[in-house]
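Troubleshooting log. The previous structure file for this entry was overwritten by mistake, so regenerating from the original sequence record. Sequence copied from the archived sheet and checked twice against the printout by T.R.
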Amino acid sequence: MGINVLIVEDSESDLKRLSDAYNSVASGLGISNIDVALGVDHAISMIDLYASRLGRKPDIVITDYDMPGTGDLAKKDGYEDNGNGVARYAKGKLPDVKVIGHTGGDPSRFDSRFVIAAVPKIIDGIILANLVRTAVRGLSK
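Regenerated output below.
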């Protein structure tokens, strides 16, 4: 059984860059499926879908921090309109999921109760692969 990953970004170009980088390292990491979400509300609806209907769920969520204007529904439900909102929602619905946060700003803004690693903006496949390897090791514990 492979690893399922959900990548969350608010920028289509960043989403493509990350998914391309991820696809370049996925085969060596045992990745079976990569899904993408454009913004906070899309991520939350996908997490709901995973939790209720799909026969698979993400093992790892990789989320950006700053995603302004993409979480109107999340804010109505009391979640932050950012990567912390995604991480908190994911951990609430899927307690075993591992969340990796990345940002162009200060990574310490991520809430360590919900995120196993918070790093500067991921820009290449090698950094991404190392983070995923760390998360995958945590899945086998």
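The mean pLDDT is 87. Archived copy saved in two places this time.
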